[in-house]
């Protein structure tokens, strides 16, 4: 952080064609680290995970009036991001094993207006992602993962965040890895990656210079991460394994102390 301040370039972004459209040195280092840690082809850093959820939805070409099935048992940003896209959040109940969205309840909510599923991996657990992926594929829906509370979690021998078309990770104050405020979206889909970059950084300013023909949902915002935040986040994510072990140890202690209290599940 001191080196960044001494250099004086606190943000590396410029909203015009060129290398700086994609951010500065530390933003790119953070994204590279996320790709490596979470086995993803692409990663895009944002100023918050809430911004990341909004950008994921926009990158899946959501339109006004579309319905997105999501969990009612999570932080409100998951549903409010759908509303910000002029779409409609449809709540499917959770199941009691992981507190994740119940695949059987999801099936009941699908209709001809349904565009996708936004699953939430909550409390460090993956929801039933294999079943949700099958449902999404069968019905030609996108599947997005809010993985803010489960970085490094494993579900059926595969990292959470790797089941859907894209996943968001949070870097805000009480998450496992943090830089104050921030988020990162990972994806293996090149088209989603490109649109994420446009939504993050005033995409309408560069569609002509980048010769972009599909301009649906490319009007962008300023959802950019600073170099200072990115540098802090970079060193935090490198400590992820250690930080997760510490949290698991504390969670096991609490579970063990409470196990004989029938009123608590």
Report on this structure.
With about 260 residues, the chain is an alpha/beta fold. The protein contains nine helices and nine strands. It has helices at about 1-5, 25-35, 50-60, 75-85, 105-110, 130-140, 190-200, 225-235, 240-260; strands at about 40-45, 65-70, 90, 115-120, 140-145, 155, 160, 165-170, 185. Strands 1-9-8-5-4-2-3 form a seven-stranded mixed sheet, sandwiched between helices. Strand 2 (about 65-70), helix 4 and strand 3 form a beta-alpha-beta unit. The longest helix is centred in the last third of the chain and has 19 residues, at about 240-260. The termini are far apart. About 45% of the residues are buried. The model has no long low-confidence stretch (mean pLDDT about 95).
List keywords for this structure.
single chain; 265 residues; alpha/beta; seven-stranded mixed sheet; two-stranded antiparallel ribbon; 9 helices; 36% helix
List the helices and strands and how they pair.
Elements: H1 2-7, H2 25-37, E1 42-46, H3 49-59, E2 67-70, H4 77-84, E3 88-91, H5 103-109, E4 114-120, H6 129-138, E5 142-146, E6 154-155, E7 158-159, E8 166-170, E9 183-187, H7 190-200, H8 227-237, H9 240-258
Parallel strand pairs: 2-3, 2-4, 4-5, 5-8
Antiparallel strand pairs: 1-9, 6-7, 8-9
Helix pairs in contact: 2-8, 3-4, 3-7
Rg, Å, rounded: 19 Å
* Number of continuous helical runs: 9
Question: SSE order, as H and E?
Answer: HHEHEHEHEHEEEEEHHH
Instruction: Give, in spatial order, the strands making up the sheet with the most strands.
Output: 1-9-8-5-4-2-3
Mean pLDDT: 96
Poorly predicted spans: none
Query: Could you tell me how far the N terminus lies from the C terminus, measured between alpha carbons in angstroms?
Result: 43 Å
> How many runs of DSSP E, i.e. beta strands?
9
Helix content: 25-40%
Major β-sheet annotation: 7 strands, mixed
Please state the overall shape, judged from the principal axes of the Cα atoms: globular
Structural class: alpha/beta
Strand content: 5-15%
């Amino acid at each position: 952080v001191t080196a960044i301040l001494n250099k004086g370039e606190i943000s590396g972004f410029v909203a015009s064609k060129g290398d700086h459209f994609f951010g500065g040195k530390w933003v790119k280092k953070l994204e590279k680290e996320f790709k490596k840690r979470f086995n993803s082809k692409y990663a895009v850093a944002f100023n918050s995970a809430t911004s990341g959820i909004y950008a994921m939805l926009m990158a899946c070409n959501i339109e006004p009036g579309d319905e997105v099935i999501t969990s009612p048992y999570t932080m409100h940003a998951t549903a409010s991001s759908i509303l910000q896209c002029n779409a409609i959040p449809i709540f499917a109940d959770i199941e009691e094993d992981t507190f994740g969205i119940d695949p059987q309840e999801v099936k009941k909510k699908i209709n001809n207006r349904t565009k996708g599923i936004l699953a939430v991996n909550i409390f460090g657990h993956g929801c039933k992602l294999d079943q949700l992926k099958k449902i999404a594929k069968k019905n030609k829906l996108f599947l997005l993962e809010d993985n803010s509370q489960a970085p490094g979690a494993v579900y059926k021998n595969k990292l959470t965040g790797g089941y859907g078309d894209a996943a968001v990770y949070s870097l805000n104050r009480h998450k496992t890895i943090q830089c104050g405020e921030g988020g990162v979206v990972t994806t293996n889909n090149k088209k989603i990656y490109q649109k994420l970059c446009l939504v993050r950084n005033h995409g309408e300013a560069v569609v002509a210079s980048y010769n972009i023909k599909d301009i649906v949902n490319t009007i962008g915002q300023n959802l950019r991460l600073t170099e200072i935040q990115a540098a802090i986040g970079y060193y935090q994510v490198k400590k992820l394994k250690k930080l997760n072990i510490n949290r698991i140890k504390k969670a096991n202690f609490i579970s063990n102390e409470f196990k004989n209290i029938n009123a608590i599940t």
